[in-house]
Design a protein that fits this description.
single chain, 324 residues, alpha+beta, Helix Hairpins, HSP40/DNAj peptide-binding domain, 3 domains, 4-stranded mixed β-sheet, 3-stranded mixed β-sheet
């Protein structure tokens, strides 16, 4: 649904993309800014939180094909004479002949702008919640919808992975249960139509702001789940089968090849977050745990091993790359 505030919001500028930006460009810009201004990166910073919400709102509109088309239409024709909350600079006389039909080819129902026939009722109806032209050429304002209500929920990392539900209190003392879909991100907004304040034209919407708690093991990168798993020196040298946990309390078996090199990653395709648009992967980063506090016997054995298995110049290639 269009919003009067869209006339004053440049969502393209908020995301730093052009009006011809592709869906992929918009998503890329959103992810970059969302990471930059995420509340977890700026605890207590109201400016960053406000910026994060602006970025999320811009992405909500521009990532939805229908909303983006409506937004582009309102921006285009709003700049030609519909700007401002009143919509008509100077009142009804902002159009030649007022609303009596003069200046509107074919009557009050339409007019020509830049060679295009525009249905004034459809355009204004979208901008002002259904207002139209009544009999006799007068403008009638449709009954106003109730105001939108806002609420906040905090969920666990696991719940954001699997999806969950929450029961929220409403303004009239009643309760409503909302479904939080799998793949929801921290800072994302969910809209429940008709669950806001009541009004003559119907109830407004309930806007729910979601915050996802951090996890001691798992992190999120786009739609991927990233987990760092400890492995022993023996496992790194000889290889093993790792049983890797996932956020939904399941496990995935993955093969760690002999001679594992630090920095290498394992990938389980399709085991990340699932959203309407994509399914991520599970990214596993093994971390070798080097034994400490060796006994004298173990130390002697280790020194014998080093003598037999030469270590070579392990940083030679690294230094060469660093000097480039």
């Amino acid at each position: 649904m269009a919003s009067e505030n869209w006339l004053n919001q440049d969502f393209y500028k908020v995301l730093g993309v052009s009006e011809s930006a592709s869906d992929a460009d918009i998503k890329k810009a959103y992810r970059k800014l969302a990471r930059k201004y995420h509340p977890d990166q700026h605890p207590g910073d109201e400016t960053a939180e406000k910026k994060f919400k602006e970025v999320a709102e811009a992405y909500d509109v521009l990532s939805d094909k229908k909303q983006r088309e409506e937004y582009d239409q309102i921006r285009k024709y709003g700049a030609a004479g519909f700007a401002g909350a009143q919509g008509f600079p100077g009142g009804a006389s902002g159009f030649p002949g007022g609303f009596g039909g003069a200046g509107f080819p074919g009557g009050a129902g339409g007019f020509s702008a830049g060679g295009q026939n525009i249905n004034i009722e459809d355009l204004l109806g979208g901008m002002f919640g259904g207002g139209g032209f009544g009999g006799g050429g007068g403008f009638q304002q449709a009954p106003r919808r109730g105001a939108d209500a806002e609420a906040s929920v905090r969920i666990s990392f696991k719940d954001s992975f699997t999806g969950t539900s929450r029961t929220l209190g409403r303004h009239d003392g009643s309760e409503t249960t909302i479904r939080i879909p799998a793949g929801v991100k921290s800072g994302q907004k969910l809209k429940l139509r008709g669950k806001g304040q009541p009004g003559p034209g119907g109830a407004g919407d309930l806007i729910v702001h979601v915050t996802v708690d951090t996890h001691p093991v798992f992190t999120r990168d786009g739609d991927d789940v990233v987990v760092r798993i400890p492995v022993s020196l023996q496992e790194a040298v000889q290889g093993t089968i790792l049983e890797v946990p996932t956020p939904d309390a399941k496990t995935v078996k993955m093969r760690l090849k002999p001679g594992f090199t630090a920095g290498n990653k394992l990938r389980a395709k399709g085991k990340g977050f699932t959203t309407k648009k994509a399914t991520g992967n599970l990214i596993v980063i093994p971390e070798v745990q080097v034994p400490a506090d060796l006994s004298d016997e173990a130390q002697q054995a280790f020194e014998a091993f080093i003598a037999l298995a030469g270590q070579g110049k392990v940083r030679e290639e690294f230094s060469r790359k660093a000097a480039q």
